[in-house]
Structure formats: C-alpha cells, structure tokens
C-alpha cells in the first residue's frame, strides 16, 4: 500500500537565498489517540476501544516515566532519550537556565511506513495558503510553547487575515474540548501575507491548542470568494 | 512520585568555549516495547501482555501511517508531524536530494512525567565514562543511520578502548536478538579519550543495534581494575 504525501514549496527561512525553497507538507488534518484507536477498531480488531486505549495509555505513560528517569526507550513508534538543555559554567542545576526534555526519534514503525510513501509536489510556489511555524518572541523558541500576555510570530504563505466572511479569523482551538477562541483583532499586531504577529491573550486557559487561520486573502487584487483555512502543523501549549 | 535523573557535565561540542559545559544524562539502560509492557503488567493490569502488545503495535503503526500520509498525530506520548528534508530549486522531487521524515515532539504524557523529575548532578567533569554521539562520516548525520563499509565517529568522555580484561571492546548488539558483535581492532582507526572512529564492518547485517564501549581507561596513569561500560543513548541503524 502506498501512502500519498502532498508537498508544497515555500520560502526557506533558514537561508537568505531567494531562489532556495523548502518543501512543506500539505496537512490533511490532525488526529488524536481516540481517532487512531477508532480507525484501528474499524479495521476489525476484537479488543474493545476502551481496552486498547487503557493499554496504549499505560504503555505510553510508563515509557515517558522511564525516559525521564534516565532510560532510552524504544516503543517501536519512537525512540525516547532524555536530554539536558542549557549551558553549565559550574555544577549547579539552575531551573531558570537548565531543563530536561525528551528527544523522540522516528522508530521502526515510522521507517516502515516511510518506505511506502509517494510524494506529490502540488501547486505553484506562492499560491497555496499554509501556516509553517510559530515562534514565541519571548525566547525565540519554535517548539510551540507560548507565553500568555506576550507576542508570538506565525510564518506562512498567503496567511494574511482578510475578508468579510464570518469564518475569517485566527483561532486557538482547545485540543481536548474542541472549543475555538477567536483572537480579537486588536491582538493581531502584524498582518502580512507571510507573517502574522499576535499578542497571546493572557485570558487563554493554559493548555494545548490548535492554531488556525481562515482568510479570503489570495495574492490577487481581489479577495477569494471562498475562504481558505490552514492549521499550524504542531499544536501549541499556552503556559 | 519523583523520577530521578542523573546528569554529568561534559564538553559542549557546539561551542569553542572550553569553560562551557553541557549536561549529559547518565543512562540507566535501554528498554524496548516488551520491557515496558512487562512493567505495566507487573503493576497489576488484567489485560494480557499479548493483547497489550497487539493494541499498542496496531495503534503505533496506524499513527505512523497517518503521519506519512500528511496528518499530524497526537498519541499522547508524542506529536508526529511529517516534514521534508532538502532544498528545492525547481518543483521536481529528487530522492537523492529530498526525503520525508517524521518529527516527533514530546506530548502530554512526557510533559506530565517531566513535572516530577528531580535532577542530580553527579561526579566531576571529565571523570565519568559516557558515549555521547555517533556521526556517520559519509554525510555528517547524527541520527544514528550508519553506512556499512564507511566510517563513523563516536564522541564521548573517557571512551578510549584500553585494558586486557576480556570484556573490553566496542560492541554492536542487535536490539531484537541481543546478539553482540565485537568490532575487530583493525576496524577501530582512531582510539582517543574523547573520540573513537570506526569503520562500520560491511559484514554487519542491516538492522538496529545498540552501540557500547567497555574499557578500563580512566584518565589516570593506571588502568582501572574494573572495566566500565557505556551505551550510546540512541540505537543505530546499519543500512
């Protein structure tokens, strides 16, 4: 079986060369564990969804606990390896400068799936609307951790928020409850085709969100009749 | 419950500053999915190990398949996001220059475990023996993919292979069968306290290995009576 991956080309933010493009995966949507379990169940597995979920969750939590207590863990899907961030000039652990994180690297299950991927390059450069990255302007991090009451910068292609359609806007959608919060216009401080800077409302409940932009902007002189939506590839965590 | 993570300080290969150290996690060993499932089972879960394993494996494989077909997947343990490596100067996909990979980022299960970590900084700088990284000298990659018949460089602390104890040596241990292959001395082309360069034998069966060094070297004038062993944090894949 072949898995199809659609790719669009966009600017390479890593280099200054304007002729140098990077490939960005066209996201077909996001799934959580319940979605994945439902799909596994639909393929005709006898075990109940509740048992599958309990099993996976227990194994995942145990794997996480082993990793943070100094073990390398191979779950088949990923390898987990604990790492330390920050520089040391003495032997004192300072939580303000140092932190523990877990690096996850693709495991055998992903390698096997990758062997069956067919890549299709779609569309023209500069045509597709896509959110690429979000940067917490407090520390320059792009790992999705945002700080309430501070600025964050979204980069992308054709992401300028424009048009009168009622669906247009920048949204933070809680990944657990699916409740969508529209970011008020006065919190959007830069609104350009390839860059949107927001003030992350400090009223946002801490937790995990999906960030999306819906816009009628389309590079032409006229607005598009039908708004387009793009979701940031990685969920963000508001702290 | 507190998870204890032991950290040792070692040279920072990212900077030229000799006073600048990085923290390296002291690895307590490696676990695979079977090990994790056994531990979960020992905590008193009714579901059989076989059912747990089938559930986790099906969910992991489905998550991998969804990721490589353009979805962002949140398994609770990790977020998976497909990405494209390589620069584009036109819209042609060239497997020699471009590849698909899956970025895995720590999810809620890991964040929760990290909240309960107590870090202990152990030992003196330069004292501990530890393998840090392996670099495939064909392409400079440090993701663990090695090429048979080509060189790879291991960096670490006090890793020089030295001593007459019969356990001393550099070993590639197959992660599935646990079969250990000792790398012959003539394949070890540089053998220094912080750097070992090997020729990866092209007779090694393709697959996943744990890399370890056992040595009596210890910075002093005399060899240590008891050999020490350190395992490379990430398994390698011989292609």
UniProtKB/TrEMBL annotation, chains A, B:
Signal peptide annotation: none
**Record has DNA-binding as a keyword:** yes
Q: Which UniProt keywords apply?
A: DNA-binding
Q: Where is the DUF4469 domain?
A: 132-229
Pfam families the record matches: DUF4469, HU-DNA_bdg
**Annotated ranges, domain Bvu-2165-like IHF-HU-like DNA-binding:** 5-123
Any one GO MF term held by the record is: DNA binding
Residues spanning the membrane: none
Stated name of the protein: DNA-binding domain-containing protein
Q: Which organism is it from?
A: Thermophagus xiamenensis
């Amino acid at each position: 079986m072949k898995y199809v991956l659609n790719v669009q080309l966009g600017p390479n933010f890593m280099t200054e060369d304007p002729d140098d493009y990077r490939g960005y995966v066209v996201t077909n949507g996001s799934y959580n564990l319940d979605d994945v379990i439902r799909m596994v169940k639909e393929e005709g597995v006898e075990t109940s969804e509740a048992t599958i979920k309990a099993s996976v969750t227990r194994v995942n939590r145990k794997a996480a606990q082993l990793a943070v207590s100094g073990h390398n863990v191979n779950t088949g899907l990923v390898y987990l390896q604990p790492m330390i961030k920050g520089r040391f000039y003495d032997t004192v652990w300072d939580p303000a400068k140092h932190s523990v994180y877990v690096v996850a690297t693709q495991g055998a299950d992903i390698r096997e799936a990758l062997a069956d991927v067919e890549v299709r390059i779609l569309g023209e450069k500069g045509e597709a609307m896509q959110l690429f990255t979000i940067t917490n302007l407090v520390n320059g991090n792009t790992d999705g951790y945002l700080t309430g009451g501070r600025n964050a910068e979204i980069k992308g292609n054709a992401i300028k928020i424009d048009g009168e359609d009622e669906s247009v806007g920048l949204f933070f959608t809680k990944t657990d409850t699916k409740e969508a919060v529209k970011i008020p216009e006065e919190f959007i401080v830069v609104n350009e085709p390839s860059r949107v800077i927001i003030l992350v409302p400090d009223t946002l409940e801490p937790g995990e969100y999906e960030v999306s932009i819906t816009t009628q902007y389309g590079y032409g002189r006229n607005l598009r009749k039908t708004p387009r939506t793009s979701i940031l590839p990685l969920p963000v965590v508001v702290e």
